[in-house]
């Protein structure tokens, strides 16, 4: 079981944050193409950092608390997954805070796709009223 | 370079990316800092387990030596840089996608996505 320590932590992160998508409806996984694009710079920079750190001897990984597999460069696969899982959890947390508080983030909320905005403008509805919108045309457009 | 030096450099670099390159200005926004504090709490938990159980071990000569919840304080800088780069990229990707789409569909929208 010790071999699953690191992997278990990563799975735990995904499990703990899953309700933000499923229950709170932050639509992060739903916008998975954007999510992949957003994680890409972080992934490249930090994987490069870790490869350098391993080569320079800055840190090392336990052989007993990881699966024991090493990728080229000496990275355990768990560490590679870390740079995907943790950023995704951070985006989920960020979108959750934003959704709950309504604070400005510098870009439109996911339900502000044009169909939805146009529909609201026609009805003169304000931004605050969002329930019932999600099943309409705006929903699928936010993914693309 | 030591881990300490790299970690400080990374924090400076992501702030420059946020403010100057993407111009997402997340570090000026309340929503970012509240989200970061939540992420930080979970980072301390997870990193505490990773370092407390020696899943990851550090060369003492490349860190300052100050530890918080078992982990070198440099890990906090590493985590901040990682989270901030991700969220700034996420904001930039969404701003771009939404703005482009709105231009094509509807002119009666809010003026700017970067207020």
What key attributes describe this structure?
heterodimer, A: 144 residues, mainly alpha, 5 helices, 57% helix, B: 115 residues, two-stranded antiparallel sheet, 3 helices, 64% helix, 6% strand
How far is the N terminus from the C terminus of chain A? 41 Å
Largest sheet geometry of chain B: 2 strands, antiparallel
Radius of gyration of chain A: 20 Å
Order of helices and strands of chain B: HHEEEH
Mean pLDDT of chain B: 90
Which structural class do you get from the secondary structure elements of chain B?
mainly alpha
The number of distinct structural domains of chain A comes to: 1
Q: Helix count of chain B?
A: 3
Range of helix content of chain A? 55-70%
Describe this structure in words.
The complex is a heterodimer of chains A (144) and B (115). Residues 112-144 of chain A have low confidence and may be disordered. The termini of chain A are far apart. In chain A, helix 1 runs parallel beside helix 3 and helix 2 (32-56) crosses helix 3 (77-101). Chain A has one domain (2-107). Chain A is built from 5 helices and 1 strand. In chain A, 57% of the residues lie in helices and 2% in strands. Chain A is mainly α and 144 residues long. Chain B has 3 helices and 3 strands. Chain B has one domain. The model of chain B has no long low-confidence stretch (mean pLDDT 90). The longest helix of chain B is centred in the last third of the chain and has 32 residues, at 74-105. In chain B, a hairpin with a 2-residue loop joins strand 2 (67-68) and strand 3. Chain B is mainly α. The radius of gyration of chain B is 18 Å and the shape is elongated. Chain B has a two-stranded antiparallel ribbon. At the A-B interface, helix 1, helix 2, strand 1, helix 3 and helix 4 of A face helix 1, helix 2, strand 1 and helix 3 of B.
